[in-house]
Design a protein that fits this description.
- The protein is mostly helical and 143 residues long.
- The protein has two domains: 1-35, no CATH class; 36-137, Orthogonal Bundle (434 Repressor (Amino-terminal Domain)), CATH 1.10.260.
- Helix content is 65%, strand content 0%.
- It contains nine helices and no strands.
- It has helices at 6-14, 19-34, 38-49, 53-59, 64-71, 79-88, 93-102, 113-123, 128-137.
- The radius of gyration is 17 Å and the shape is globular.
Length: 143
């Protein structure tokens, strides 16, 4: 079952009348968001892309040891590392947002200048290196 979008969840919340509905919603939402860890999620996406761990870490421009620690679950990745890993996998924005949510790293927000640049790069299939170049050119912190 495909997880519900934020808009869909907001509509459900806005239409609720009682505590019993809220409790049922909370049970479903917690189950949807807690079933998968970030390493599991990226592992599945990696399999879908046919990419090896070493390829992913290299494409994401992440230091090798740190990349392995993120992917085996011993280190919690920062927001930029989550984005870099997703970009290396060429995931669409919706999947990047899902990965950021699972990693509890805050989704990309189009009203933030840096986030809008990152969204542009994702939508245009740019690599992490190309994204970092563009971010630097525009005076923003690289990933």
């Amino acid at each position: 079952m495909e997880p519900k979008t934020t808009d869909e969840l907001m509509k459900i919340l806005n239409s609720m009348d009682g505590l019993s509905e809220l409790e049922a919603y909370a049970q479903i939402t917690v189950k949807e968001t807690s079933d998968t860890t970030f390493p599991e999620y990226i592992g599945h996406r990696m399999e879908d892309a046919g990419m090896s761990l070493s390829q992913l870490i290299c494409e994401a421009q992440i230091q090798r040891n740190y990349g392995y620690q993120i992917l085996n679950g011993t280190k919690k990745p920062g927001r930029d590392k989550v984005i870099a890993l997703c970009m290396a996998l060429k995931l669409p924005v919706s999947e990047v947002q899902r990965a950021l949510t699972i990693a509890q790293a805050g989704v990309l927000y189009p009203k933030h200048r840096r986030d809008s640049i990152v969204i542009f790069c994702i939508n245009n299939g740019m690599s992490v290196l190309e994204t970092n170049d563009l971010l630097d050119q525009l005076g923003e912190a690289i990933l």
